[in-house]
Design goal:
single chain; 200 residues; 0% strand; transmembrane helix; transferase
Length: 200
């Protein structure tokens, strides 16, 4: 512990290792966004790398005792920019009404997340209060049915659709199944409910 304390005090906050991992997340996400073909294997791998790094920054911060408000906000702002971009990219230009509704729900959810963090200085789950909706989604560190539906809607299904469309050379609107669409609708209901519930 003494070693991490001394290292922490020698490094400026912006250069703490967990924050450096956060910057790599941003770089890989921007690389995906700027790819000439957002359905390419390169773009999908870049956004996947950004998500993989998301599983490292938090444990690194806790292990090194380098948790900070800056790092937390960097992490969660990056999460929500990624979610918004994935849903937008998976909507495509030729998608139907449901995809447009889902994109609107994503815009509402991520917009609320940005405003909430700007006002409170922390992410939803760090609130001292909560309600039945937020506690249900956040329970067991997001490992529960409601949270799985939320993650499927905001991250997993868009990523699968992008990967499938790019790999098989099909329209992103066609890179789905009735089961995926049904679960995606359920996930969108959870996403919208979570967006609204954080204010109560």
């Amino acid at each position: 512990m003494a070693n991490s304390d001394s290292a922490k005090h020698k490094l400026p906050l912006l250069l703490w290792p967990p924050n450096l991992i956060g910057y790599l997340r941003v770089i890989t996400l921007v690389a995906a966004m700027l790819a000439p073909d957002i359905y390419s294997s390169y773009a999908v791998w870049m956004v996947s790398a950004s998500y993989a790094l998301d599983y490292i920054d938090g444990p690194c911060a806790r292990h090194l005792d380098m948790c900070s408000q800056f790092g937390d906000l960097l992490d969660h702002y990056t999460d929500h920019v990624t979610m918004m971009w994935l849903v937008w990219a998976a909507t495509g230009t030729d998608s139907g009404l449901w995809a447009q509704i889902n994109l609107a729900i994503s815009a509402v959810h991520n917009g609320i997340a940005f405003v909430y963090m700007a006002i409170t200085g922390h992410y939803f789950k760090h609130s001292a209060t909560g309600n039945i909706v937020t506690r249900n989604i956040e329970s067991n560190n997001y490992w529960n049915l409601a949270s799985v539906l939320y993650c499927a809607n905001t991250t997993l299904f868009p990523l699968i659709k992008l990967s499938f469309a790019g790999t098989h050379g099909i329209k992103v609107a066609d890179a789905t199944t009735p089961l995926i669409d049904t679960v995606d609708v359920l996930g969108a209901i959870v996403t919208l409910s979570y967006s609204l519930a954080v204010w109560f």
